[in-house]
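Q: Here's a chain of 333 amino acids. Please give me its 3D structure as tokens.
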Amino acid sequence: HNPYDRAAIFRLELLHHAHFDKPLMMRNPPWALFLVLPLAWASPGTSGLVWMIAIIVCLLGSIHMMRPAGVREIPLAMLLFAPSVICAGAEQTSIFTLLGIVLFLRWHERRPFAAGLALILAMLKPHLLVLFWVVLLLEVWRHRRWRILAGAATGLLAANALALAFDPHVWQDYIAAMGAEQLGSVFCPNISSGLRLLIAKNAIWMEALPTLAGIAVAIWYWWRSRSSWKWSQHGTMIVALSVLTAPYSWPFDQVLFLPAMLSTLPRVPKRAILFLGAADLAALALFLTHPFLETPVYMWMAPAWMAWCLYAYTRKAPQVSSSRQEELQPENA
């Protein structure tokens, strides 16, 4: 049946004792349906438990894979990063998007096809990574890394084929459902919605301005760093900037700041970790007292994480002896 049938979904949600005044829709594109399809063969309680376990495992696995060489302990502020907690509480797919980015960063050199294939997880929320897609295409073109594109295309085609096999009209159904969702009228606590709210409340096009400015900055940054480009360093900052300037984003999507935070962890002093912990506690307290996310009180979070990342990125890395560098060289797996 149509997986985006609002009326049918609402009846199903009410049947299982949901307390909504309108259907809670899965707004991810049809190629994301492969992720939830297996849950249909279990009861809602079992599926919910499996989904939550998968989210937690993917989060911890992503943090483990991103741990910089030589760093033995991840700060509690990053293990209990407020957007991660909010994302797990809301059972959102943003953590799977994080896993896709992490796998790409881990595999892009030695396993380019697998790295591209992993990007199907990053495409669960493609609008969050506009700047990343632009820079990725520039890097692929510059180094002729066509196997990355081949892997991404393979994953995308396979995921779409699976969705179309169950509903041949899935894309028409998705477009119709998203039109009924009226996403243009939704307030998101980010700088794009804040800009529109401050200047022209009804001018939806204004929400694209931060993204356009971000694209310009990302291209300039890539061009300036192209000779020494490293996805594990420069690329993580592009991901962070993408989330900051995304026109449609929520506090739980800010889990994508973690790669930039972890990649710069060896650079920062303890006082910076303490500052991050204080901001993290404030965000967690805010979520406990204001669980309704469509409010401006969350607008400070993304700029705060970005400011911390920029501070950490601009600090000089500590000097390590050549023998120690060989010992700390991360394994490519």
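Q: Can you summarize the key feature?
A: The two ends are 40 Å apart (CA to CA).
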